[in-house]
């Protein structure tokens, strides 16, 4: 019996749908805020993990978008505080188009132009699963720590109570 039900092992479908809707925008914003650093993927997954940990409460309060933006700002600020150097941004011109078309089949040449629809949803599903598992493991660790702290407090209270009972009433 739980006062607050523990997290499910699998992410709920509305969380997966939320991640699928916001994955590209969140990833782009993390990349922009990190200045193009390769750590933007870690920031992106950390934000999704934070969101997964509080998903039920945020969904009920309709604050998922706000919380996601707050966590993205906080995670990026935390990353920037850890930097020991200034980030220098240089804008490079786009590469010139090739003089002659690349060799290969027509399907390979079209594949670079046509955006994939199935792959994008699979990427979002994978990101949602990873973030949910990280949040689930974090929730389990916090639960174990809460139980250990409770046991320590009960043992300490029993020791204090027994000392109080055995004290001389003078």
UniProtKB/TrEMBL annotation:
UniProt entry tagged with the keyword Transmembrane helix: yes
Entry keywords, A to Z: Membrane, Transmembrane, Transmembrane helix
Regions that span the bilayer: 148-167
Official protein name in the record: Uncharacterized protein
């Amino acid at each position: 019996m739980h006062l607050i039900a523990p997290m499910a092992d699998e992410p709920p479908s509305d969380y997966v749908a939320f991640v699928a809707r916001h994955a590209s925008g969140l990833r782009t914003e993390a990349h922009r805020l990190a200045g193009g650093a390769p750590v933007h993927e870690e920031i992106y997954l950390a934000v999704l993990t934070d969101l997964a940990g509080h998903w039920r409460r945020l969904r009920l309060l309709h604050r998922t978008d706000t919380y996601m933006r707050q966590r993205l700002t906080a995670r990026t600020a935390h990353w920037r505080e850890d930097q020991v150097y200034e980030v220098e941004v240089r804008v490079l011109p786009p590469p010139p188009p090739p003089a002659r078309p690349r060799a290969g089949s027509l399907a390979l040449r079209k594949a670079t132009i046509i955006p994939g629809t199935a792959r994008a949803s699979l990427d979002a599903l994978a990101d949602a699963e990873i973030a949910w598992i990280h949040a689930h493991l974090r929730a389990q660790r916090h639960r174990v720590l809460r139980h250990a702290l409770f046991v320590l407090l009960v043992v300490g209270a029993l020791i204090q109570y027994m000392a109080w009972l055995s004290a001389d009433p003078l």
